[in-house]
């Protein structure tokens, strides 16, 4: 076992370095120096940050698709700012004259409406990922709003919590880390946690705090919990891998990493390594590489009229997709797949599990 396998997650030194990494991501994710050819469609993805392993994989999938069709690609990062995310998209719409296919994971759910309306007005084609209001639908903006792709956060939030509680022997105190309050995935995953708690009366939720999907924010929260609750903490539930790894780093500082079970979601490379080493009990792999490219493929095929949106059933326009629940039993297979990611970009609906369910 190599050192990376022995020490899952990110070190405290790496936490500090992330500040410089974020600045690099902003500089590298802009539009400076990019030429927009006349009549040539530009592809773009807008997402939170290139410092998060999930979005790194998402961006690589988008790059792979763009290379496969020989079109220019622009990554846009919000860095957690709705204003920046929307402004960057509007600027790109203007630069391209609307000759744009956009795959966007909005910073907040409300941002999706503004982005869709801007794309529709400019004649661009857009697919949204994860976040949007319940009353915003692709068929309301034909043909420019192509699709919305998401996953059943309630089901997977409950499944990771159930796995955690079973590893605790069905009893004891648990602390929980949530994502951004206004994000649909954060809301749904917390609802899944709540559903699991109702089924395990021996589990006590000691505290729930929001860490905004961020390991750096999760780290001090976990430190404070260990001071406050001490030995009462028997498990840690996190709504994504990055926060789970922040909690694990805090546990490691006390010599408790691998002794107190932790679960996450996203199936990131550091999260998978943590499962392999025994420091993370479970995660969920959404295959962000596939998500990054398939949203662009859907948009480009709609723009080129290779698919007729008006004839598609609604579950092909607003879809829950299939994911892989990851534990130590299958983590090696998932690691191997992530190391050499592949996707069939023309098979648009192979992973559609059914329509989005609004609860």
From TrEMBL:
Entry keyword Signal: yes
Entry superkingdom: Bacteria
GO cellular component, one term: cell envelope
Subcellular location: Cell envelope
Primary location: other
A Pfam family annotated for this UniProt entry: Peripla_BP_4
UniProt entry tagged with the keyword Signal: yes
UniProt xrefs under InterPro entries: Peripla_BP_I, SBP_2_dom, TAT_signal
Keywords from the named record: Signal
MF annotations from Gene Ontology: carbohydrate binding
Residue span, Periplasmic binding protein domain: 47-303
Binding site for beta-D-galactose: 48, 52, 105, 131, 189, 240, 266
Family: Belongs to the bacterial solute-binding protein 2 family.
Protein name: Periplasmic binding protein/LacI transcriptional regulator
